[in-house]
Amino acid sequence: ALPIAIMAGPCAMESRAHALETAQALKEIAERLGIGLVYKSSFDKANRTSIESGRGVGLAAALPIFAEIRESLGLPVVTDIHEANQCAPVGEVVDILQIPAFLCRQTDLLITAAQTGRVVNVKKGQFLAPWDMANVAAKVTGAGNPNVMLTERGASFGYNTLVSDMRGLPIMAQQTGAPVIFDATHSVQQPGGQGATSGGQREFVPVLARAAVAVGVAGLFIETHPDPDRALSDGPNMVPLVEFEALIAGLMRIDAVAKSLI
Amino acid sequence: ALPIAIMAGPCAMESRAHALETAQALKEIAERLGIGLVYKSSFDKANRTSIESGRGVGLAAALPIFAEIRESLGLPVVTDIHEANQCAPVGEVVDILQIPAFLCRQTDLLITAAQTGRVVNVKKGQFLAPWDMANVAAKVTGAGNPNVMLTERGASFGYNTLVSDMRGLPIMAQQTGAPVIFDATHSVQQPGGQGATSGGQREFVPVLARAAVAVGVAGLFIETHPDPDRALSDGPNMVPLVEFEALIAGLMRIDAVAKSLI
Amino acid sequence: ALPIAIMAGPCAMESRAHALETAQALKEIAERLGIGLVYKSSFDKANRTSIESGRGVGLAAALPIFAEIRESLGLPVVTDIHEANQCAPVGEVVDILQIPAFLCRQTDLLITAAQTGRVVNVKKGQFLAPWDMANVAAKVTGAGNPNVMLTERGASFGYNTLVSDMRGLPIMAQQTGAPVIFDATHSVQQPGGQGATSGGQREFVPVLARAAVAVGVAGLFIETHPDPDRALSDGPNMVPLVEFEALIAGLMRIDAVAKSLI
Amino acid sequence: ALPIAIMAGPCAMESRAHALETAQALKEIAERLGIGLVYKSSFDKANRTSIESGRGVGLAAALPIFAEIRESLGLPVVTDIHEANQCAPVGEVVDILQIPAFLCRQTDLLITAAQTGRVVNVKKGQFLAPWDMANVAAKVTGAGNPNVMLTERGASFGYNTLVSDMRGLPIMAQQTGAPVIFDATHSVQQPGGQGATSGGQREFVPVLARAAVAVGVAGLFIETHPDPDRALSDGPNMVPLVEFEALIAGLMRIDAVAKSLI
User: Fold this and answer.
1) Closest chain C residue to A155, measured at CA
2) pLDDT averaged over chain C?
3) Which of A188, B25, C236, D216 is buried most, with the most CB atoms less than 10 Å from its CB?
4) For residue B107, is it left (φ>0), alpha (ψ between -120 and 50) or beta?
5) How far is the C-alpha of D144 from the C-alpha of D124, rounded, in Å?
6) Where are the beta strands (DSSP E) in D76-153?
7) How many other C-beta atoms can be found within 10 angstroms of the C-beta atom of residue B237?
8) Is the ipTM of this complex over 0.90?
9) Residue D254 and residue A214: Cβ atoms within 8 Å?
10) Which residue on chain B is closest to C164 by alpha carbon?
C-alpha cells in the first residue's frame, strides 16, 4: 500500500491572504516531509449549528482563490459542495469535490458531482454504518466516475458526541476498493456541544489519527489554522499550524510500520 | 392543549389515481373520527439507500396532483423538499413544506422554505439531540416565519437502528414553543438494514404511537398505503390503509386522557 | 390484561421509622386508588458510583423491618440482592427478590434466587437488548421457578445517558411470557453524570411512565421519598411522596384505555 | 513509557493438560519476543449468555493448575473472580485478580480484592464512560491497595454491538495514573449476537490492537487458543495460537514508534 497522503487546511476560507499564506506554509511542510498534500478549505459553511455563526467568503469569491493556489503553488485543492448546481462551477477549479456527511445520501448531489469527472470524496454520515457506504459509493461509480474516496468522521454516540469505530476503516476499504481517509478533525467534534456552536477536543486529534494510521488508511484529513482560537469555524478541533509538521512526521513513522504489517 | 392532528399518506406519490384514491379514503376516515388530517406524500425520494430504488413521480408531475387534492377534497397537503430552488414552486401548492431529517441543518434550505410563508415542518436529524433543534427552529423563525413545526423520527442507536427517546418530545416543545409531531413510521425504520434498502418494523408503529401520544404531542405522522408490501418506498414500515382508522381511533382515546393530565 | 400494579418506596432503607412511615403512606394511597402495590427498598446500595456514598442499613438490620412491614401493614415487599448467599435469608422475609441490572447475567445469583421459590424480578442490564432477556429468564425458569418478572430500566446511550426503547416492553413480554415492569425511576438516571454520583431527571418520570403504560405493561417501578433532595440515594430521580398519588391516578387512566386497545 | 506487556491465554481453563500446554507455548513466544506476559484463563464463566453454555473447570480444580503454571513455568497468572468470598483463596495463587466488566461497580468485590494485596485489574463496564473509572479505581486504592490496573473492552453501541472509543485509553490513564490495558478480544465481541451465545469478529482483533497500541497503552489483553473454533468459550473472537507470535511482533513495532512520540 502507498504511504498516507494528507488533506489539510483551515476549515473555512477566511480571506485570499489567509488562504495563500496557509497554503504556502502547508506546501513547505509537505515538501520537507515528502508527503502528498491536498489543500482543503470551505467557501461556505452551509449547515452551521446556529444561524448566528459565520459562513465563509462564498462561492464566487472562493473560486479564483482556489485557482490561484493550484496555479501559483501547484497544490491540488479540495472543497465541499452543498447543492447540485454548485458541482459544475466548483469542479472547474478544484481537484476533489467533497460531499458533506449530512448530504452523503443525496442522490442528485452525488451524481452531479460524479459527472464533473473530478474525484469525489464522500464523508460518511454520522448516521450510517460503514457497510452502508457501499451503496453511497455505487451512486458515484454508477454515474460513470470511478474516482470515489470515502472519509470516516465519526458516528453518532448518544447526544452531542461522536465515536470513531476503527473497524469501519478496513470495512469500507474492503467493500468498495475506494481509498479511505480518516478525518481526525471532525471525529473529535462535539456536535452542538456548546449550545449554539459545536465543541471539540483538539487534544484527541493526534490520538485518533495515530489509531487510524495504525489500522491502515490511504490518508488523513486534518484541519489546521495559524490561530485556531480565532478561527471562523471549528476552532475547538483544529490543530495549530505550528504543531502540524511534528504531528504529521510522527504519523508517517507509524504509517511506515503499519503498511509493512498489513 | 388541542387534540392530536394527523399527517398521513403513502410515503411516495405513485400516480395521480393512487394519490387521489388514498387521499379520498383518508378524508373519509378523518371525517368519521373528527380529527384534523394533512395529506402527505413525497414527489421525489432524493436520498434512497441505493441508486436502484424508485424515486417517485417528480416535482413537475406532482404539483398539479397536490393542487387537485387540496381543491377537490379540501385536504391540506404536506410534502418534503430537498434543494432551495424547490421551495417557491412547491410552496405555491402545498400547506406545509417539510425539511427531511438529513437536511435539517442546511441553512439555505430552511431560510428559503421559511420565506415562502408556508408552515415549515422540520424533521429532527437522527444525529441531533432534542435540544439541538432550538437552533434549527431559530433559523426558520429568524427568517421571519413563526410557523415552524418539529418532528421526531428517531435517533441513531448503534448501526442500522433508531431509538425514540420520548423525553425529546416535551424538551423540543418547551424549548421552542413549536408544535411537536411524532413520526411513528420512520421511527421504526432500520436504516440500511436490508443491504440496499432500509428495513422496518411495521408492528411497532402502534406501539411507539401510543407512547408518544401518552407523553403528549400536537400530532402524529403515520404513513399508510393500500398495499404496503407493493409500495414504492418504505413498505416495511407503512401501516395498511385498512388498519388505519382503528389505529387512529385508539390513539385519540389515549390523547384525550393524556391531554387531561398534562 | 390485568390493570397495572406498582412497585414503590424509597431507593434505600434509611431507618425503621422512615420505612414504616413511607410504607404506611403508600398503603393508604394504594387502597384509595384500588391498585396493587409492592413495597420496595434496598438494604444495601452495593454498586454506588463512588465509595463515599451511603449504602443503607445493611441486611441484618433490614430483614426484621421488611418482616414488620409485611405483617403489620399486609404489604408485599421486594428488595434487591447482590451475592448468592443473600438469597436464602432475604427470601425468607420478602415476596420478590430483585436482581440488579449489572448482575442480570450472573448465573449463580439467578439460580440461587430461583431456588428460594420467591418471585424473581430481573432488571434488564443497560448493556443488553430486549431479546437478550429471554436467555436471562430461562436461567430462572430452568432452575424450576416459573415466577420470573422482567424490568426495563433503560439502555446505554452514549456516555452518562440512558434511553428507554419502548419497543423492548412488548418484545420481552412476547418472548418470555413474563410480566414486564417499567422502572421509570432508573430510566431517567444519568449514570455517573454528576462526577461522584449519578444524576437524574425527576421531571421525566411521569413522561416515561405515561409512555410505558400506553404501550402496555404489567406494572411500574417508581421510587418515591418524602423528601427526595435529602434522600440517601437516587434523590435526583425520585418522585416526592406528596405527588405520588396524583401521578399513579393519571397512569391508571391511561392504563385502562391502553389495555382496552391491545 | 515502558514497552507493552501482554495478558494472554485461553478464555476458559479447559483442563490441566490444555492449560499447561498453552502456557508453555506462550512462555516460549514471550521469551523469543522479549515481552512480558501474564497467563490468563478463567476458572468459571459466571455470566454466560445462556445457561446451556459451559462454565469451566471451577475454582477448586483451577487453583492448583494456576499454582503449577506459576511455579513450573515462572509465568505470572491472572484470573477473574465473581463474588467477594473468592478473593482470598484465588489471591493466594495468582498475581492479578481481575474484576469482570459487569461487576466493576460492586463495591464489596473491589474492596475484598484490594485487601488481598494482589494487583487488581478492573475491566471497564460496557455501560460506563472512561471518566467513570476514576471512581472505580478509587474504591481499590481507597482500600489501601495502590496496584490497580484498568482495562478497556468496549462500550455498548446500540444492541448486540460494542464500540471501542480510543480516546478512553488516555483519559483513563491521565485521570487515574493506573496502567491501562486494551482488551482486543472482548472489544470485538457481539454480545448475545448469536442468540444463545455471543458472537465475535476475530478478524478485527489485530485491527483494534494496532489502533490501541498506536494510541499508547501499558499492555494488551488478547485471548488465544490452539483451536478457537472448538473452544469452550469466546471461540469466535480468540486468535489462533499459531498466529499469535506474528501478531505480537507487529504490535511491538508499532508500540516502539508510538512510545517514542508520546
Assistant:
1) C158
2) 95
3) A188
4) alpha
5) 21
6) 77-80, 96-99, 119-123, 148-152
7) 25
8) yes
9) yes
10) B165
